[in-house]
Amino acid sequence: MRLIIAILLPFLVFFTIGRPIAGIICLILQITLIGWLPAAIWAAYALGQYNTDRKIREALADRGR
User: What integer pLDDT is reported at residue 55 of this predicted model?
Assistant: First the structure.
């Protein structure tokens, strides 16, 4: 679901993953039609990094038990 949001409304993804400053910067980039594509790519990349970081944290938490 977040991937669809990353493509359609890239700035919103940054707010959902807890990066509001990046969300504001992405919104400014997205305002221009030319900047929308880089904003969507950036949002999809950031979402992938967020998911990877979350999985690593979960794996380390399970390992510590």
Answer: 92
